[in-house]
Amino acid sequence: xxELSGEQYDLAVVGLGAFGAAVAFHAxxxxxxxxxxxxxxPPHTMGSTHAETxxxxxxxxxxxxxxxxxxxxxxxWRDLEAETGVPxxxxxxxxxxxxxxxxxAERWTDFVGxxxxxxxxAGIDFRVLAPQQVSAEFPQLHLAEDEKAGNEPTAxxxxxxxxxxxxxxxxxxxxxTVRTNETVLALDADDAGVTITTDVGEHRANRVVATTxxxxxxxxxxxxxEHLEVTRQLVVWYEVDDLDTWTTDNHPFVMWISEDIADYVxxxxxxxxxxxxLKTVSEQFSTFCTPDSAERTVSDEEILDLHTxxxxxxxxxxxPRAIRxxxxxxTNTPDEHFLIDEHPDSPRITTVSACSGHGFKxxxxxxxxxxxxxxxxxxxxxLEPFRRRG
Length: 390
Ligand SMILES: Cc1cc2nc3c(=O)[nH]c(=O)nc-3n(C[C@H](O)[C@H](O)[C@H](O)COP(=O)(O)OP(=O)(O)OC[C@H]3O[C@@H](n4cnc5c(N)ncnc54)[C@H](O)[C@@H]3O)c2cc1C
Hints:
Elements: E1 3-14, H1 18-29, E2 34-37, E3 53-56, H2 67-84, E4 89-90, E5 94-99, H3 111-122, E6 127-129, H4 131-137, E7 147-152, E8 156-159, H5 160-173, E9 177-179, E10 184-190, E11 193-198, E12 202-210, H6 216-219, E13 229-240, E14 253-256, E15 265-268, E16 278-282, H7 300-311, E17 318-332, E18 339-343, E19 346-353, H8 363-376
Parallel strand pairs: 1-2, 1-12, 2-9, 5-14, 12-19
Antiparallel strand pairs: 3-8, 4-8, 5-7, 6-7, 10-11, 11-12, 13-16, 13-17, 14-15, 15-16, 18-19
This protein binds flavin-adenine dinucleotide (FAD).
């Protein structure tokens, strides 16, 4: 294999999706000589960062360790909007619906209560609503008697592909070398750096951050008991009777959590310029896949099943007709928290597996913290809670 340039970069970022684009952008801003590599041409639809939008919440019921990350991400997205003129964050508000005893999955247990406690401790506006209050404010939503909702006005949706595009453009403009459609095959660390072998040749860097999303088990799998599971999730946009109702100007997103994890659904109103319909995301954790083996087509049966099981009795004005349907891949750790740590083989390689269905909202702050760690050995935000566990 030939070395592709005589240069030894300060940092090579492998995988330029949500996390890699952010690392490359922030590292370039900090003056590092950055090489970014991706097997596709991000943003693209093969991994975990597509389908227009992602939910963001300041009151993160998954745990208080996440609040500084999402709060900093909001600041960075606002700065990026001011710098580029590209809208990234629509603070349309967010509703979390759940019953007290939900759910089967640990992360959802008393999720409205958990979110309420985190919001109260941090001074975040979060109102808990009874079913009757929800129907008064949002007549199209039908809660069961034992369900309640939590409403956070500062929550909203982030334009996920635009955020990747903007950060990669700024990284390139700042001097980063970004090589797309080039697959990294191996990372070999030695005393002086890391050799990155790709399907084109070899590169050298002092440090590597591997942000390979659902490909992580193949390239830079963290060991020590951590076992990553990749699952195929459905994203379906349904035709609605009244499009105005389901826009980010007029409707919060909704996360609908049930006792049975298979009955979870999230509703995403359409952002300006977005697909005109109601975007829905469901979850399943029983069938595993790889990016290569995942069935990429969403079948008519899946579209009808999602509507019948998860929407018809909960939301009025949503037809069973899909105007767009895609799959997207989750990468989960056993406890569903993130994994951001040095690779066991070498402290020169950091692995980031921060999907678990709730990673995007934290991505640019995590990217900034990782870039700071490479540049200075320390970071403003604490990533310790996300090191390998067990
Ligand atoms: C359906 C769905 C809904 C979600 N909803 C939310 C939400 O509402 N809110 C939220 O906060 N989060 C959400 N998430 C999670 C969030 O989207 C992910 O945490 C995040 O997008 C993961 O980004 P990533 O950078 O890890 O992976 P990716 O964006 O997939 O990036 C990995 C990149 O690595 C590249 N790559 C892989 N292997 C190699 C290699 N060997 N060589 C070179 N390049 C390589 C790939 O081409 C890819 O571009 C959701 C995820 C899904 C799937």
